Structure formats: structure tokens, C-alpha cells
Amino acid sequence: MKKRPALVTAISCVLIASGVAGLAYHITEFATADKLDYALVLLVRALAIVAGAFILRGRNWARWVAMLWISFHVVISVFHPIRELAIHILVFALFAFVLFRSDAMDYFRGTSRQQKMTGEQPPPHE
Predict the structure, then answer these.
(1) How far is CA 70 from CA 8, 28, 31, 78, in A?
(2) pTM for this structure?
(3) Which of 49, 66, 68, 105 is in Cβ range 3.0-4.6 Å of 19 for a Cys bridge?
(4) How far apart are CA 114 and CA 25, in angstroms?
């Protein structure tokens, strides 16, 4: 496996920390919250943790989950103050920049199960 870029590690840690902090914060609302809303909030927080953990393992799908996660935050920020929307747009841009740079693309490029079974090499990066 290729070496993980430091910025990819940083994004992973931010995702995991955000998910854990959000879970810790929202756990106190269990008794008073609408159960469906509460479940959705916990799901979003858990997605951050899962995406961060699997980005550390080089799973390509996890970076897409991370982009969906931050995209969701941009969308819901439309209904909040403009400053919050601007911050989420900047974080989205940062995630996209870090997770889709050429060094990150190389890190996430894995071999398919078929290539592993047949011994074929992945196509060269152009």
C-alpha cells in the first residue's frame, strides 16, 4: 500500500473527532429529542467516524462518504446564518482539495479483487 499523505491523515482525524464530539454532545439530548431526528443526527455523526476510520485504511469509498457528509452540512447550512454556510463551503473545498489531490488519488487507488486474484497490475497513473 502506498504511503498515506499527511493531509489525508489530518482530514481523517478531523472526521473522527467531529463524529465522536458530536455523539458525546448529542447523547445528552436523548430524553428530550424527537427519536427520528435523534437517530438521524446519530447516523450523521457515525458516518463521520466510519469515513474517517476507513480513509485511514485507504478505502476509496470512504472519501466519497466524507464528501457526502460535508456536502450534507453545506446543504443544511443554507438554513443557518451566512457565516456558517461560508465556513461549511470552505471546509468542503478543503476536503475536496485534500482528498482528490494526485498524492491522495495514488493512495486511494487500490487493486480490484479481480486484479488480486489474477495477478494483473493496475493501470498506470497518467
Answers:
(1) 15, 24, 28, 13
(2) 0.80
(3) 49
(4) 43
